[in-house]
Amino acid sequence: MAAALSSFDVVVAGAGPGGSVAAFELARSGAHVALVDKARFPRDKACGDLVGPRGVELLGELGIAPEGVVSLGDMAVIGPSGGRVILPAVPGLTYPGCAWALPRKVFDDVLYRAAMEAGAVGITARVAAVEVEDGRGDGVGGAAVVHLDDGGRLRAGALIGADGATSAVAGSVGMVRADRVRWGFAVRTYIDAEVELPVIVLFDEEPGVGFPGYGWLFPGPDGQANAGVGVGAGSDRRAGARATRYLDTFLGHLRMLGLLPSDAVAGPRLGGWLKMGMLGTSPVSGPVLLVGDAAGLVNPLQGEGIAQAMSSGKAAASAVLGVGGERDAGAVYGQWLRQHQSAYQGSTAALQGLLLANPRMVSRLGRALTWPPIGRRLAGGWAIYWNDLVTGAAPGRARSLARVASGAIRGATAASPSRRELGRALGRPRPSAGPGEGLRAIVRLHADPSARDHRVSDELIADRRADAEEG
Ligand SMILES: Cc1cc2nc3c(=O)[nH]c(=O)nc-3n(C[C@H](O)[C@H](O)[C@H](O)COP(=O)(O)OP(=O)(O)OC[C@H]3O[C@@H](n4cnc5c(N)ncnc54)[C@H](O)[C@@H]3O)c2cc1C
Q: Tens digit of pLDDT for each residue in 68-114?
C-alpha cells in the first residue's frame, strides 16, 4: 500500500532559525505550510549561541522577543602573542549596537513555537529523499514530493531546504557538490563561569604557524559560559577533527590567561559542521530553495550563520509568497542572494582560502591585528567588516576603514575561482527537471490586500489548521 500523501502549499525541511522563520512568515501570510524536523523540540544545537546585530534587528521586525537573552556589546580579541584589542559594538543605521546570547536549545524553540502559533503544521520526521515532479507544461513550476523516514510523503509547490550544513534536501536534489564546499567544524561546551566580555582567541599551533580558526569564550545566561573552537577545513572534512582535538588545550589556555577559574568544570561537548561562503551549492533548483547553512551562508571569516539563516528564510518565504507581485520565486530569491549575500560571501571565501593555504600568514596577521598600536587603530573597521556590517553602518572613521577593506578585498578577489564559481551558481536559477521551469510564487494569497501586509485573518489560519488535521 502506498504511504499517505499530504499536500501543502510549501514544505519547509528543517526547523532551525532559517526554517522556522521561513515557516513563520509563510504561515502568518496564510500559506498552508509544513515544518518538518527530525528532532522533537526543544532540541540542542552546537553553537556559540550569539545572535549578531542583524539577527537582533530582524527578530524585532518579526515581532519575536525571546526572554532571558544576555545583551552583549564590545568583544575582546586576544592574539597569538597575547596582545589584546577591543572590537567596539557600535549601533549602525539599520542594526543595533549589540548581540544577544541565548542557548540554542531555548532560542530555536522560541522560533519553532512562533511558527507553530502562526499556523505552520509541525511534523517530526527525517527527510529521507526528495523527488521533483515535472511542471504541468503551463510555464509555471512543478512540485516537490518529500519522502520521510516514517513512510509519510509530503507534496508541495515549493520546498524550502533549511536542513542545515549537511542538507538532505540539497543532496537529494543534486544541488551540492560536496568536494567544492568550504567546510568548517566547531565544537562547544558549557562551563560554570561568570564571563564579562565575549572573547575571541587567535593562537598558533606551533610558533609562527597560525591555527586556521579560533577559540571563543562567550557569556551566557545563569552564569553558564559557552566556550569552543572552530576550524576552517576547506573541502576536506577530515580536517574538522582538529577543532575537537584542540578544545582541551584551548580550555587550558583560557585558564592560563585568567579568563576561566582554574576549577571551572566543562560540561558535555557538542560539535557541528559549518558550510561557508556559498561554495559548491546551487541555492535554487525548480521548486526547491535552500536557505541558511543548507545554502552555505555561514560567514567564512568568523562563523556566524544565525542571522543569515533567518534573513534568507524570510527572503525565501517572501519570494514564494510573491511579495511584490513577482511570479518567479526562484529568480526573486536568487536576486536576493546576489544582492545581499554573494559579494561578501564570495570575497571572504576567497580570502579564507588564501589564509587556509598560508598558516604563517595567519599567525602574522593575528599578531599584527592584536598588537595594540595597530589594533587600536583598526578595531572599529575590523568589527564592522568581519561581522559583515558595512551596509547600514553609521558614518564615521570605522565605516570608512571597513569600506576600504571591503573594496580592496572584493577587488583583489574579483577573478578568484570562488567568486567565479559563485557567479555561475547565482547567474540564473537551475532549470527544474521538467518543462515547467521555475518556481511559481503563491500570488493568489495576495489577492487579499491584508495578506500582502502580512496581516492574515485568524479565520484563514484556523481554516489551514483544520485542513491539515483532516489531511
Ligand atoms: C559549534 C558552532 C558554533 C557556532 N556559533 C555560532 C554563533 O555563535 N553565532 C552564529 O550566528 N552562528 C554560529 N554557528 C553557525 C550556526 O549554528 C548556523 O549557521 C545556524 O544554526 C544555521 O541555521 P539553519 O536554520 O540554517 O540550520 P540549523 O540550525 O542547522 O537547523 C537545521 C535543522 O534541520 C534539521 N534537520 C537536519 N537534517 C534533517 C533531515 N534530514 N530531516 C529533517 N530535519 C533535518 C535539524 O534537526 C535542525 O533542526 C555555529 C555553528 C557551530 C557548529
A: 999 999 999 999 999 999 999 999 999 999 999 999 999 999 999 99
- CATH class of segment(s) 5-71+101-176+277-347+420-470: alpha beta
Handedness of CA 366, 211, 218, 235 (dihedral sign): positive
**Cα(21)–Cα(246) distance, integer angstroms:** 34
Domain ranges (residues) in the chain: 5-71+101-176+277-347+420-470
Cα Rg of the chain (Å, integer) = 22
Q: Please say whether the beta carbons of 341 and 308 come within 8 A.
A: yes
Give which of 426, 423, 433 is closest to 174, Cα–Cα: 433
pTM: 0.92
**Grid coordinates in use for 469?**
488535521
Tell me what pLDDT residue 402 has: 98
Three-class SS of 188-222: EEEEECCCCCCEEECCEEECCEECCEEEEEECCHH
Q: What is the DSSP string of 271-332?
A: EEEEEETTTTB--EETTEEE-GGGGT-B-TTT---HHHHHHHHHHHHHHHHTTTS--BHHHH
For ligand 1, mutation pick of 36, 43, 45, 49 (most atoms within 8 Å of CB): 45
Question: Which residue has a Cα nearest atom 52 of ligand 1?
Answer: 47
141 vs 359 pLDDT, higher one? 359
Q: Which residue is closest in CA terms to ligand 1's atom 21? A: 306
> What separation in Å is there between the alpha carbon of 186 and the centre of ligand 1?
11
